[in-house]
Amino acid sequence: MLTALRPVGNYFRYDPKPLDKNLFSPFTFQGYQSGTAALAAALMLAKKKRPEVINPEVILPGYSCPDLLSACKYAGVNVKFVDFEQNLPWMSLSEIESRISSSTIAIVAVNFLGIPERIEQISNRVKSANLLIIEDSAQGFTTGSYSDYWKGDVVTLSFGRGKPLSLFGGGATLCRNQELASLLPNFDNEESDGGLSFRSKNLVFKTLSSPLCYFWLTKLPFLGLGSTEYKPLENLTKLPQDVASQIVSSVEQLRAKLANLKRVAENYRSIEKDYIINLPQTTNTSENSVLLRYPLLITDDSKRDKLFNELASSGLGVSQMYERIIIDIDNIPQEILVDKPDLPNARQFARQLVTLPNHFGTRVEHTRKIKKIMMEKD
Ligand SMILES: Cc1ncc(COP(=O)(O)O)c(C=O)c1O
Protein backbone atom coordinates (compact mmCIF):
# COMPACT_ATOMS: atom_id res chain seq x y z
CA MET A 1 0.00 0.00 0.00
CA LEU A 2 1.29 3.45 -0.82
CA THR A 3 0.65 6.10 1.75
CA ALA A 4 0.89 9.84 1.96
CA LEU A 5 2.18 9.94 5.51
CA ARG A 6 3.96 7.39 7.67
CA PRO A 7 2.18 6.79 11.00
CA VAL A 8 5.20 7.12 13.30
CA GLY A 9 8.84 7.98 13.59
CA ASN A 10 10.53 11.31 14.09
CA TYR A 11 13.57 11.63 11.87
CA PHE A 12 16.65 12.86 13.75
CA ARG A 13 19.69 14.26 11.96
CA TYR A 14 22.85 12.28 12.71
CA ASP A 15 24.80 14.47 15.14
CA PRO A 16 26.75 12.47 17.74
CA LYS A 17 27.62 14.14 21.05
CA PRO A 18 28.95 12.68 24.30
CA LEU A 19 26.15 11.48 26.59
CA ASP A 20 26.12 13.49 29.80
CA LYS A 21 24.91 11.10 32.52
CA ASN A 22 23.38 14.12 34.29
CA LEU A 23 21.26 14.91 31.27
CA PHE A 24 18.06 13.81 33.04
CA SER A 25 18.98 15.31 36.41
CA PRO A 26 17.67 15.03 39.13
CA PHE A 27 17.26 11.42 37.91
CA THR A 28 20.18 9.03 37.51
CA PHE A 29 20.64 7.40 34.09
CA GLN A 30 21.27 3.76 33.22
CA GLY A 31 21.01 2.67 29.58
CA TYR A 32 19.77 -0.74 28.32
CA GLN A 33 19.21 -2.24 24.88
CA SER A 34 15.45 -1.43 24.80
CA GLY A 35 12.55 0.07 26.71
CA THR A 36 11.42 -3.47 27.57
CA ALA A 37 14.83 -4.24 29.09
CA ALA A 38 14.75 -0.91 30.97
CA LEU A 39 11.36 -1.83 32.46
CA ALA A 40 12.60 -5.33 33.35
CA ALA A 41 15.55 -3.72 35.17
CA ALA A 42 13.17 -1.42 37.09
CA LEU A 43 11.06 -4.43 38.13
CA MET A 44 14.18 -6.32 39.25
CA LEU A 45 15.11 -3.29 41.33
CA ALA A 46 11.62 -3.37 42.92
CA LYS A 47 12.13 -7.05 43.73
CA LYS A 48 15.52 -6.45 45.28
CA LYS A 49 14.03 -3.71 47.44
CA ARG A 50 11.48 -6.16 48.92
CA PRO A 51 13.44 -9.43 49.37
CA GLU A 52 10.96 -10.68 51.99
CA VAL A 53 8.16 -11.04 49.40
CA ILE A 54 8.08 -14.64 48.16
CA ASN A 55 5.77 -14.30 45.13
CA PRO A 56 6.06 -10.65 44.14
CA GLU A 57 3.19 -9.06 42.24
CA VAL A 58 2.97 -5.87 40.21
CA ILE A 59 -0.01 -3.82 39.12
CA LEU A 60 -0.34 -3.06 35.38
CA PRO A 61 -3.01 -1.21 33.38
CA GLY A 62 -5.26 -3.59 31.44
CA TYR A 63 -4.65 -1.75 28.18
CA SER A 64 -1.08 -1.12 27.09
CA CYS A 65 1.84 -2.48 25.12
CA PRO A 66 2.37 -6.28 25.48
CA ASP A 67 6.10 -5.55 26.04
CA LEU A 68 5.09 -4.80 29.64
CA LEU A 69 4.45 -8.51 30.10
CA SER A 70 7.79 -9.43 28.48
CA ALA A 71 9.51 -7.30 31.12
CA CYS A 72 7.45 -8.85 33.96
CA LYS A 73 8.17 -12.39 32.78
CA TYR A 74 11.91 -11.70 32.53
CA ALA A 75 11.99 -10.03 35.95
CA GLY A 76 10.09 -12.94 37.52
CA VAL A 77 7.09 -11.04 38.85
CA ASN A 78 3.39 -11.91 38.69
CA VAL A 79 0.84 -9.50 37.27
CA LYS A 80 -2.48 -8.09 38.42
CA PHE A 81 -4.30 -5.97 35.84
CA VAL A 82 -6.34 -2.93 36.77
CA ASP A 83 -9.17 -1.45 34.68
CA PHE A 84 -9.16 2.11 33.28
CA GLU A 85 -11.45 4.89 34.43
CA GLN A 86 -14.21 5.19 31.83
CA ASN A 87 -13.05 6.93 28.62
CA LEU A 88 -9.66 7.79 30.13
CA PRO A 89 -6.16 6.32 29.66
CA TRP A 90 -5.68 6.18 33.43
CA MET A 91 -5.98 3.30 35.88
CA SER A 92 -8.96 3.36 38.22
CA LEU A 93 -7.68 4.72 41.55
CA SER A 94 -10.21 2.78 43.59
CA GLU A 95 -9.30 -0.46 41.79
CA ILE A 96 -5.60 0.08 42.41
CA GLU A 97 -6.39 0.36 46.08
CA SER A 98 -8.50 -2.78 46.13
CA ARG A 99 -6.00 -4.84 44.08
CA ILE A 100 -2.85 -4.20 46.11
CA SER A 101 -1.81 -6.78 48.69
CA SER A 102 1.20 -7.52 50.90
CA SER A 103 2.79 -9.21 47.83
CA THR A 104 2.55 -6.07 45.65
CA ILE A 105 6.03 -4.63 45.13
CA ALA A 106 5.35 -2.10 42.34
CA ILE A 107 2.79 -0.28 40.27
CA VAL A 108 3.66 0.33 36.62
CA ALA A 109 2.07 3.66 35.71
CA VAL A 110 2.14 4.07 31.94
CA ASN A 111 2.37 7.37 30.10
CA PHE A 112 -0.09 6.96 27.22
CA LEU A 113 1.10 8.70 24.01
CA GLY A 114 2.41 11.65 26.03
CA ILE A 115 -0.43 11.80 28.57
CA PRO A 116 1.19 11.07 31.95
CA GLU A 117 -0.54 8.84 34.52
CA ARG A 118 -1.88 10.46 37.71
CA ILE A 119 1.16 9.44 39.73
CA GLU A 120 0.71 11.86 42.62
CA GLN A 121 -2.86 10.70 43.16
CA ILE A 122 -1.79 7.05 42.93
CA SER A 123 1.03 7.66 45.44
CA ASN A 124 -1.34 9.28 47.89
CA ARG A 125 -3.68 6.31 47.73
CA VAL A 126 -0.96 3.68 48.35
CA LYS A 127 1.29 5.56 50.78
CA SER A 128 1.30 2.87 53.44
CA ALA A 129 2.03 -0.03 51.06
CA ASN A 130 5.85 0.27 50.68
CA LEU A 131 5.76 -0.21 46.95
CA LEU A 132 7.69 1.31 44.07
CA ILE A 133 5.98 3.47 41.47
CA ILE A 134 7.56 2.76 38.12
CA GLU A 135 6.63 5.33 35.50
CA ASP A 136 6.83 3.76 32.04
CA SER A 137 7.44 6.82 29.91
CA ALA A 138 8.34 4.96 26.68
CA GLN A 139 5.68 7.04 24.91
CA GLY A 140 6.12 10.31 26.78
CA PHE A 141 8.87 12.89 26.85
CA THR A 142 9.35 16.53 27.75
CA THR A 143 11.90 19.07 26.65
CA GLY A 144 11.15 21.05 29.82
CA SER A 145 11.72 20.26 33.49
CA TYR A 146 12.13 16.52 34.10
CA SER A 147 11.18 16.79 37.77
CA ASP A 148 7.91 18.51 36.82
CA TYR A 149 7.07 15.92 34.19
CA TRP A 150 8.12 12.62 35.81
CA LYS A 151 6.69 11.80 39.22
CA GLY A 152 7.59 8.10 39.57
CA ASP A 153 10.30 6.68 41.85
CA VAL A 154 11.83 5.08 38.78
CA VAL A 155 11.15 6.13 35.17
CA THR A 156 11.72 3.99 32.08
CA LEU A 157 12.32 5.31 28.57
CA SER A 158 12.46 3.75 25.12
CA PHE A 159 14.48 5.04 22.17
CA GLY A 160 12.91 2.50 19.82
CA ARG A 161 10.19 2.15 17.18
CA GLY A 162 8.51 5.49 16.72
CA LYS A 163 9.00 6.79 20.25
CA PRO A 164 9.52 10.52 21.02
CA LEU A 165 13.31 10.02 20.77
CA SER A 166 13.08 7.53 17.92
CA LEU A 167 16.62 6.18 17.57
CA PHE A 168 15.81 2.61 16.38
CA GLY A 169 16.62 1.00 19.70
CA GLY A 170 17.73 1.44 23.25
CA GLY A 171 16.10 2.36 26.53
CA ALA A 172 16.97 3.79 29.90
CA THR A 173 16.04 3.42 33.55
CA LEU A 174 16.09 6.69 35.49
CA CYS A 175 16.09 6.62 39.30
CA ARG A 176 15.07 9.35 41.70
CA ASN A 177 18.12 8.75 43.91
CA GLN A 178 21.42 6.85 44.12
CA GLU A 179 20.07 4.40 46.66
CA LEU A 180 17.51 3.11 44.15
CA ALA A 181 20.05 3.22 41.30
CA SER A 182 22.40 0.99 43.27
CA LEU A 183 19.77 -1.79 43.15
CA LEU A 184 19.61 -1.92 39.34
CA PRO A 185 20.78 -5.20 37.79
CA ASN A 186 23.98 -5.58 35.82
CA PHE A 187 23.98 -6.61 32.17
CA ASP A 188 23.86 -10.27 31.14
CA ASN A 189 26.05 -9.31 28.18
CA GLU A 190 28.21 -6.24 27.81
CA GLU A 191 27.35 -5.81 24.13
CA SER A 192 24.14 -5.74 22.11
CA ASP A 193 23.92 -7.87 18.98
CA GLY A 194 26.15 -5.65 16.83
CA GLY A 195 23.54 -4.99 14.10
CA LEU A 196 23.48 -1.97 11.81
CA SER A 197 24.60 1.33 13.35
CA PHE A 198 22.25 4.21 14.13
CA ARG A 199 23.77 6.11 11.23
CA SER A 200 23.00 3.35 8.69
CA LYS A 201 19.47 2.76 9.98
CA ASN A 202 18.83 6.49 9.93
CA LEU A 203 19.92 6.73 6.33
CA VAL A 204 17.64 3.87 5.29
CA PHE A 205 14.78 5.41 7.27
CA LYS A 206 15.25 8.80 5.62
CA THR A 207 15.46 7.30 2.15
CA LEU A 208 12.38 5.15 2.60
CA SER A 209 10.30 7.76 4.42
CA SER A 210 8.97 9.33 1.26
CA PRO A 211 5.30 8.55 0.58
CA LEU A 212 6.18 6.23 -2.31
CA CYS A 213 8.55 4.13 -0.24
CA TYR A 214 6.69 3.81 3.04
CA PHE A 215 5.45 0.34 2.08
CA TRP A 216 9.06 -0.91 2.12
CA LEU A 217 9.75 0.81 5.40
CA THR A 218 7.11 -1.33 7.11
CA LYS A 219 8.90 -4.47 5.85
CA LEU A 220 12.25 -3.80 7.55
CA PRO A 221 12.40 -5.69 10.85
CA PHE A 222 15.15 -3.53 12.37
CA LEU A 223 12.88 -0.47 12.19
CA GLY A 224 10.30 -2.30 14.31
CA LEU A 225 7.22 -0.88 12.62
CA GLY A 226 5.38 -4.19 12.68
CA SER A 227 2.20 -5.36 14.36
CA THR A 228 1.34 -5.75 18.05
CA GLU A 229 2.57 -9.08 19.32
CA TYR A 230 4.09 -10.63 22.41
CA LYS A 231 7.89 -10.97 22.12
CA PRO A 232 9.80 -12.52 25.03
CA LEU A 233 12.78 -10.60 26.41
CA GLU A 234 15.88 -12.82 26.22
CA ASN A 235 18.51 -10.87 28.16
CA LEU A 236 19.68 -7.47 29.42
CA THR A 237 22.39 -5.79 27.37
CA LYS A 238 23.93 -2.35 27.15
CA LEU A 239 22.51 0.69 25.39
CA PRO A 240 24.42 0.66 22.08
CA GLN A 241 27.11 3.35 22.04
CA ASP A 242 25.95 4.91 18.77
CA VAL A 243 22.41 5.37 20.17
CA ALA A 244 23.79 6.79 23.44
CA SER A 245 25.78 9.37 21.51
CA GLN A 246 22.72 10.53 19.59
CA ILE A 247 20.52 11.28 22.65
CA VAL A 248 21.77 14.79 23.51
CA SER A 249 21.36 16.18 20.00
CA SER A 250 18.01 14.43 19.53
CA VAL A 251 16.63 16.16 22.64
CA GLU A 252 17.80 19.46 21.11
CA GLN A 253 16.23 18.61 17.77
CA LEU A 254 12.95 17.65 19.47
CA ARG A 255 12.95 20.98 21.33
CA ALA A 256 13.36 22.84 18.04
CA LYS A 257 10.36 21.02 16.53
CA LEU A 258 8.08 21.37 19.55
CA ALA A 259 6.09 24.34 18.26
CA ASN A 260 5.24 22.46 15.08
CA LEU A 261 4.12 19.35 16.97
CA LYS A 262 1.96 21.51 19.21
CA ARG A 263 0.39 23.22 16.19
CA VAL A 264 -0.54 19.84 14.70
CA ALA A 265 -2.18 18.73 17.98
CA GLU A 266 -4.02 22.06 18.18
CA ASN A 267 -5.49 21.51 14.71
CA TYR A 268 -6.77 18.07 15.69
CA ARG A 269 -8.24 19.41 18.92
CA SER A 270 -10.83 21.36 16.95
CA ILE A 271 -12.37 18.16 15.54
CA GLU A 272 -15.76 18.12 17.21
CA LYS A 273 -18.62 15.65 16.92
CA ASP A 274 -21.06 14.40 19.52
CA TYR A 275 -19.64 10.85 19.16
CA ILE A 276 -15.97 11.94 19.46
CA ILE A 277 -14.22 12.27 22.82
CA ASN A 278 -10.93 14.17 23.07
CA LEU A 279 -8.67 12.73 25.76
CA PRO A 280 -7.21 15.10 28.37
CA GLN A 281 -4.15 16.78 26.91
CA THR A 282 -0.73 17.43 28.33
CA THR A 283 -0.92 21.21 28.35
CA ASN A 284 -1.72 21.35 32.05
CA THR A 285 1.17 19.02 32.96
CA SER A 286 3.88 20.64 30.94
CA GLU A 287 4.26 23.34 28.35
CA ASN A 288 7.09 21.40 26.80
CA SER A 289 5.77 17.89 26.46
CA VAL A 290 4.80 16.27 23.21
CA LEU A 291 1.99 13.97 22.13
CA LEU A 292 3.39 10.99 20.27
CA ARG A 293 0.11 10.56 18.41
CA TYR A 294 -3.17 12.43 18.83
CA PRO A 295 -5.76 10.15 20.50
CA LEU A 296 -9.53 10.31 20.02
CA LEU A 297 -12.29 7.99 21.18
CA ILE A 298 -15.10 7.40 18.69
CA THR A 299 -18.03 6.14 20.71
CA ASP A 300 -20.36 5.10 17.87
CA ASP A 301 -19.23 1.69 16.55
CA SER A 302 -20.64 1.91 13.03
CA LYS A 303 -19.44 5.49 12.52
CA ARG A 304 -15.98 4.54 13.80
CA ASP A 305 -15.62 1.61 11.42
CA LYS A 306 -16.68 3.71 8.43
CA LEU A 307 -14.47 6.62 9.47
CA PHE A 308 -11.46 4.46 10.20
CA ASN A 309 -11.72 2.65 6.86
CA GLU A 310 -11.89 5.93 5.02
CA LEU A 311 -8.97 7.43 6.97
CA ALA A 312 -6.91 4.25 6.51
CA SER A 313 -7.48 4.15 2.78
CA SER A 314 -6.49 7.81 2.50
CA GLY A 315 -3.02 6.74 3.72
CA LEU A 316 -2.69 9.51 6.26
CA GLY A 317 -1.00 7.47 9.00
CA VAL A 318 -4.11 6.94 11.14
CA SER A 319 -3.94 3.91 13.47
CA GLN A 320 -6.08 2.07 16.01
CA MET A 321 -2.99 1.07 18.04
CA TYR A 322 -3.21 -2.29 19.85
CA GLU A 323 -7.01 -2.72 19.35
CA ARG A 324 -7.13 -5.26 22.22
CA ILE A 325 -6.46 -5.32 25.93
CA ILE A 326 -3.25 -7.13 26.91
CA ILE A 327 -4.93 -10.37 28.07
CA ASP A 328 -6.50 -10.79 24.62
CA ILE A 329 -3.12 -10.72 22.81
CA ASP A 330 -1.90 -14.11 21.51
CA ASN A 331 0.89 -16.10 23.20
CA ILE A 332 1.22 -13.99 26.35
CA PRO A 333 2.70 -15.85 29.35
CA GLN A 334 -0.51 -16.92 31.10
CA GLU A 335 1.43 -18.41 34.04
CA ILE A 336 2.39 -14.95 35.39
CA LEU A 337 -1.19 -13.64 35.48
CA VAL A 338 -2.60 -13.79 39.00
CA ASP A 339 -6.12 -13.70 37.51
CA LYS A 340 -8.00 -12.53 34.44
CA PRO A 341 -10.35 -9.72 35.44
CA ASP A 342 -13.10 -8.41 33.20
CA LEU A 343 -11.69 -4.85 32.52
CA PRO A 344 -14.76 -3.42 30.72
CA ASN A 345 -13.46 0.17 30.52
CA ALA A 346 -10.07 -0.83 29.10
CA ARG A 347 -11.82 -3.08 26.58
CA GLN A 348 -14.10 -0.27 25.48
CA PHE A 349 -11.13 2.10 25.26
CA ALA A 350 -9.21 -0.36 23.03
CA ARG A 351 -12.20 -0.65 20.69
CA GLN A 352 -12.97 3.07 20.48
CA LEU A 353 -9.48 4.50 20.14
CA VAL A 354 -8.29 6.10 16.91
CA THR A 355 -4.93 7.88 16.83
CA LEU A 356 -3.77 10.54 14.40
CA PRO A 357 -0.14 11.13 13.36
CA ASN A 358 1.89 13.82 15.12
CA HIS A 359 5.53 13.50 14.11
CA PHE A 360 8.07 15.75 12.41
CA GLY A 361 6.70 14.81 8.98
CA THR A 362 3.07 15.81 9.79
CA ARG A 363 2.12 19.01 7.99
CA VAL A 364 -0.88 21.31 8.31
CA GLU A 365 -2.25 19.99 5.01
CA HIS A 366 -2.28 16.44 6.43
CA THR A 367 -4.22 17.59 9.49
CA ARG A 368 -6.67 19.47 7.25
CA LYS A 369 -7.32 16.36 5.15
CA ILE A 370 -7.87 14.22 8.26
CA LYS A 371 -10.12 16.84 9.80
CA LYS A 372 -12.16 17.17 6.61
CA ILE A 373 -12.83 13.41 6.51
CA MET A 374 -13.76 13.36 10.21
CA MET A 375 -16.00 16.41 10.09
CA GLU A 376 -17.81 15.52 6.88
CA LYS A 377 -18.58 11.87 7.59
CA ASP A 378 -21.89 11.12 9.33
C1 LIG B 1 4.37 1.78 27.01
C2 LIG B 1 5.52 1.01 26.46
N1 LIG B 1 6.41 0.46 27.31
C3 LIG B 1 7.48 -0.23 26.88
C4 LIG B 1 7.71 -0.40 25.53
C5 LIG B 1 8.91 -1.20 25.08
O1 LIG B 1 9.87 -0.41 24.45
P1 LIG B 1 10.91 -1.07 23.42
O2 LIG B 1 10.19 -1.25 22.12
O3 LIG B 1 12.03 -0.09 23.33
O4 LIG B 1 11.34 -2.37 23.99
C6 LIG B 1 6.81 0.13 24.61
C7 LIG B 1 7.03 -0.07 23.16
O5 LIG B 1 6.19 0.09 22.33
C8 LIG B 1 5.69 0.86 25.08
O6 LIG B 1 4.80 1.41 24.24
Describe the secondary structure blueprint for this structure:
Blueprint: E1 28-32, H1 35-49, E2 57-61, H2 67-75, E3 78-82, H3 93-99, E4 104-110, H4 119-125, E5 132-136, H5 146-149, E6 154-158, E7 171-175, H6 178-181, H7 198-208, H8 214-217, H9 241-244, H10 247-269, E8 276-278, E9 293-298, H11 301-313, H12 344-352, E10 353-357, H13 364-376
Parallel strand pairs: 2-3, 2-4, 4-5, 5-6
Antiparallel strand pairs: 1-7, 6-7, 8-9, 9-10
Helix pairs in contact: 1-2, 10-13
The chain binds pyridoxal-5'-phosphate.
Pyridoxal-5'-phosphate binds at residues 34-36, 39, 64-65, 67-68, 110, 136, 138-139, 158, 160-161, 171.
What keyword list fits this structure?
single chain; 378 residues; alpha/beta; Aspartate Aminotransferase, domain 2; seven-stranded mixed β-sheet; 13 helices; binds pyridoxal-5'-phosphate
